[in-house]
Amino acid sequence: MKKLALILTLLASCSAWAQGDAEAGKAKAATCAACHGADGNGIMAQYPKIAGQHAGYLEKQLKDFKLAMSTGGAQGRNDPVMGGMAMPLTEQDMADLAAYYASLPISDNTTPESSIEIGQTLYRYGDAERGVTACTACHGPRGNGTSLSGFPKISGQNAEYVQLQLEKFRDGQRTNDMNAMMRAVAAKLSDDEIAALSQYVGGLH
């Protein structure tokens, strides 16, 4: 019943989103390029690739950044830079930007050989003894996530960005994950495991 209620809640929230226009989003994306690049693939490794990401997920993050700013950090996703960028955006702006970046191709990435042993095991199987859920359960075997469920595409993502987010989930600095699922997993991971996972997902295809 809990799973059914969660799915229905997700579907209801998705239907409440504005319909995005990719062409309109392109015209509004000039400022985004400073960090995310003209093609949405980021200009530095600590910035996420947003090209090819699910539109619903991108839209939710923008809303969460704005919510954090408007609630003094009590809700949403805290980030002073993105919060400032999101504050003047309307819901239509967010939907348009999300549609635009979702339409762009993500650039290729690779998995270092050194990260495969630890990263692949945790990603595919988790660690039952420690209660670590396999990443594939939500993000899929190829790291593509699921749009309707709100799970992001992580395949091809910058390793440094993924590592920063896992550390933030672990430390409780990022709290906009559904039902605290990411916080529950990240809390049980060591620095070495986070580093290996972050590098491993880059080359998932």
UniProtKB/TrEMBL annotation:
A Pfam family matched in the record: Cytochrom_C
Coiled coil: none
The record's account of how the chain is modified after translation: Binds 2 heme c groups covalently per subunit.
Binding positions for heme c 1 per the UniProt entry: 32, 35-36, 82
Keyword Translocase: no
Cytochrome c domain location: 20-105, 114-205
Name this protein carries in UniProt: Cytochrome c4
Gene3D superfamilies linked to this entry: Cytochrome c-like domain (1.10.760.10)
Molecular functions per Gene Ontology: electron transfer activity; heme binding; iron ion binding
PANTHER family in the record: CBB3-TYPE CYTOCHROME C OXIDASE SUBUNIT FIXP, CYTOCHROME C4
Location of the protein in the cell: Periplasm
Top-rank taxon, per record: Bacteria
Binding positions for heme c 2 per the UniProt entry: 135, 138-139, 182
Keyword Electron transport among record annotations: yes
Signal peptide as annotated in the record: 1-18
Keywords: Electron transport, Heme, Iron, Metal-binding, Periplasm, Signal, Transport
Predominant location category: periplasm
GO cellular component, one term: periplasmic space
